[in-house]
Design a protein that fits this description.
alpha/beta, TIM Barrel, seven-stranded mixed beta sheet, two-stranded parallel sheet, 9 strands, binds zinc ion
């Protein structure tokens, strides 16, 4: 039986692994997350749940006090959407179908960096739906203007705000995070806290040396893919 508690924990729910364009393996991400004092993470690789599935499997074997949410950053026809699910599901490519299908499978649906148009945020399509479970109001890899606008719109729409790192190198993990007020350190406990809006985003950006490191990683990747 899960331990019944009432506590505040740190969550970074937008991280990339080697299953898409991240540098760290799911296992390395778990180690970094613990080092950064996070209790909840989601590995949200592009169009795949695999990074988080592998992390969850590994976690079970080491039994650490960390919750890994099964996640995916899905590229829809309107832009990028974060899904948080109990288990992997199919991911329709039109935004409308994705929102419906994900909700019918009890997933949480959250627009990623919605106003960062360079990074394929959904922009004003955010207003087409009322049923977002939260908004990624702060993304440590997005520009300030985009984050400011996302915070404003989340407030206007009365939606819970998440802050995430969108880490592509492990050192980025936890540079922005959300404090969740949970009554149980479990996937259910995390979902409940987000749905009830028991979340407090902590706005942060990585220091310049990490930004440079991240930039070098994107060049290294581009060269590898040639
Ligand atoms: Zn991302």
């Amino acid at each position: 039986m899960p331990q019944v508690i009432d506590m505040h924990v740190k969550a970074d729910m937008h991280i990339h692994s080697t299953y898409s364009d991240g540098r760290a393996s799911p296992r390395e991400i778990l180690i970094y997350a613990q080092y950064k004092g996070l209790a909840v993470i989601s590995i949200t690789d592009h169009d795949t749940f695999l990074g988080s599935v592998v992390a969850q499997r590994y976690l079970r074997s080491i039994q650490e006090d960390l919750v890994v949410i099964i996640g995916n950053e899905v590229r829809t026809d309107e832009g990028d959407i974060l899904l948080y699910c109990y288990e992997p599901i199919d991911t329709p490519r039109t935004l409308e179908d994705l929102v419906d299908y994900a909700h019918s499978n009890n997933c949480l649906v959250v627009p990623a960096h919605p106003f960062d148009l360079f990074r394929l945020g959904i922009g004003t399509a955010i207003y087409e739906f009322k049923e977002w479970d939260a908004i990624e109001a702060w993304n440590a890899s997005a520009n300030k203007g985009a984050n400011r606008k996302a915070v404003e719109v989340a407030k206007e729409m009365g939606l819970p705000m998440l802050a995430n790192s969108d880490a592509h190198i492990p050192e980025y993990i936890g540079t922005a995070y959300t404090v969740l007020e949970i009554d149980e350190l479990s996937v259910d406990g995390v979902f409940k806290a987000i749905k009830r809006g028991l979340v407090k985003p902590h706005y942060g950006y990585p220091p310049f040396n990490l930004v440079a490191k991240r930039f070098l990683w994107s060049i290294e990747r581009a060269l590898r893919n040639h």
